[in-house]
Amino acid sequence: MRRKIRKLEEKDQDTIVIKKFDLDTGKKVDLITGKKVDLDTGKKVDLDTEKNVDTAVIDTFDETKSEIKKSIDLVEGKYDELKVNGMKTDKEKLK
User: Fold this and answer.
1) Is the N or C terminus of the chain more exposed, i.e. has fewer CB atoms within 10 Å?
2) DSSP code, position 2
3) Is 95 part of a structural domain of the chain?
4) Is position 21 within any domain?
5) Model-level pTM greater than 0.70?
């Protein structure tokens, strides 16, 4: 799964991979670049290229449980909780 996400990041400049994301607070994100982003507005991510990113892929796959992968749409401010089989199970707004 990690290889697939990295490959996606290399191909699509509008997609970034986020190392850590706290769904409880929904505010701070540690990026691959080491930058932190405030998601209060849920609309912008500033990269080294100063490019606005609309969608970010969050790698929160729990290898011990092998359960879920979460992705976030920064424009809508929502995240999808996906099972390993790819079926959507939940969609909520970030608080």
Assistant:
1) C
2) H
3) no
4) yes
5) no
> How do residues 17-40 score in pLDDT, each as one tens digit?
444 444 555 444 444 444 455 455
Nearest Cα neighbor of 71 from 23, 11, 37 is 23
- The domain total for the chain is 1
38 contacts 46 by C-beta, under 8 angstroms: no
CB-CB contact of 59 with 2 (8 Å): yes
> Could you give the CA distance from residue 33 to residue 63 in angstroms, rounded to a whole number?
23
Longest dimension (CA), the chain: 36
Residue numbers of the domain that contains 57: 2-84
The answer to whether residue 79 is domain-embedded is: yes
Q: How would you write 3-56 as a 3-class SS string?
A: HHHHHHHHHCCCEEEEEEECCCCCCEEEECCCCEEECCCCCCCCCCCCCCCCEE
